[in-house]
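User: Need the bound-state model for fe (iii) ion:
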Amino acid sequence: MIGIFGGAFDPPHKEHIRIAQAVKEEFSLENVVFLPSGNAPHKCLQAPFSLRVKMLQSALQGAFPIDQVENTFTEKTYSYKVLPLLREKYGDIAFLIGGDSLLAFEKWCHPEEISKICPLIVVPRGEDDLARLSAAAEKYARLWGAKILISQKVRGEAVSSTMIRAKCALGMPAEEVADEVMNVIKQNGLYSEYADYVNRVKSMLRETRWRHTCGVVLAGLKINEKIGLPFEKVFLGCLLHDCMKHTDRINDGVPQDTRGTKVLHAFNGAEEARLAFGITDTEILDAIRYHTTGRANMTTLDKLVYTADMVEELTRDFPGVEELRAVAYEDLDKGFLLCFEKCYESLLERGIPIYYLTLDCYNCYCKKE
Ligand code: DGI
Ligand code: FE
Ligand code: FE
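Assistant: Bound-state model below.
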């Protein structure tokens, strides 16, 4: 039997290869064929098919074959259409999927067709509930005669390609990716659409503040895994949030009453994003503008940037930050509330004058009747 390992592989990471090897062993597969998906309609930071194949070749070094059939498809490729072709080509096949995909199997296109074509090999993620997976497997067996094999030995780790692409965009090392793949990424300038913004912000900040900014981008994207705002809004809001932290230059349009206070840089940063970086998206601009004070009726992006700013993993290490972080990654509304309360109390304790928007925010979210 041949295992079919489909994915975007944008980029392929070490965990992909570990899983392929481990599944091959556990199920005594003759081989595992990597099947990069066809090009999706253009999204931010996506590598084209040919370069994803090139990265896969560098990652696999001939250890596993790559099937490029999905490159020939112009419309969206569905498993129920591709798998019959692969069965014709390879004979006895099994389709590798993650635990999360099995739980969503009903929402796939024609799961009953797929169930007839070949067995599914399910690789649970570390945090997956095995009882739930077994229950789902039994149900699909009953409904459609699906043959579902749940791996007993392999546990996938939650490696996020989005996070890897963000690290590349920020010029950070990504240990999830093999050196050979990183070389292809660099040589072809992959995931570098925001290089101009990144370089400019970096040049405006001192080293630790830049590290903090990278931390906020990564924390923001991690929070966003549960929320699903557009990548660009999260990336740019977080990237630009503190861009005016280290300057005395004040842009037009910044409220007078913020001068000489710690909240100035947020308003100044929003104007800089608009005037110098050419950002026109008001949601991004607002998230920057209100990242220090908060406000009444915050948008999800406002809360996300505010919270990521406080819990990022690269420089924030105040007592209790780990608990805040865990809550924030799980539930943004709760995480935001805890972060805001902590910040508000600290202002009171230190006797710092509270800006009216901070008070608005307090009245909106914290005031008990
Ligand atoms: O820029 P960061 O250090 O990453 O974080 P931030 O933008 O949240 O700024 C935090 C600082 O802003 C901290 O010293 C407290 C101060 N601050 C927050 N809200 C208010 C405030 N200062 C005044 N004067 N009034 C506020 O309402
Ligand atoms: Fe700030
Ligand atoms: Fe900040």
